[in-house]
Write a structure and sequence with these properties.
The chain is α+β, with helices and mostly antiparallel strands. It is 30% helix and 33% strand. The protein is built from three helices and eleven strands, in the order H-E-H-E-E-E-E-E-E-E-E-E-E-H.
Length: 252
Amino acid sequence: MGNFLTNKNVILVAAVIAAIGLFLALFLSSLWDNAIVDKDKIWNTSLKFDKENAEEFPYSVKTKQGNLYASGELKSIDPMISNEFLDGEFLAIRETFEHYTRHESKSCDSDGHCTTSVYYTWDRTGDKWSIGGDADLLGQSVQLNSIPLDKLLTSVGIKGGGKYRKRGFDDRSYYDVVTNNSSGSWGFTSDDKGFSHNKNINPPNSGLIVAKWFTFWFCIFGGLFGATYFTYKTYEVGYDYFDDSKFDKYRP
């Protein structure tokens, strides 16, 4: 080991560590670039529709124009749905369930004495959707259960007042709804396979660019830190690289 860890070799190993960090930065950055280009290509080649050119959306669906992106209001075509605990009718209703759950938290002091505290919280255990039939989007019929509706949800209280429906001693639920004429944006594809929602059609996402540069600089600084740390820890053991005769007694 002493023969290997000369001043020259320590610098060489540190350089290799830094080079690995640079390679990873460039490699992963290229993967992010490909993902960003693919996303932008899909977006740039998609036809966009809103209330200004709404009449063109049904025609593009009918003539199978490929990727489409529509922004507008969802207007009920089929009868809307209701719930015995809510006032009114809606395009969709989501009921979220919560359970009053016991938790334990353990903490120890510097002397090793530990105590356990108990606390309770309402924890989400699941949800159930009730979704209506078809709705009109810019003159085109769309199946509500085929598109994501989460971003259109608004919270509502139950009949008689309050937010929560009691479902037992330690269980409860609350409701969010999608009202008629809610506005949103969705990507679709209309081709020989039919008309369907396409989750990959979205406006350019700055988050991808942020993720790319975060990954790039993380690898760069990681490589530099690794090289610096290796050099520091190696010299810290006290090797005299200008005179390694101290290792003679360990050699055969």
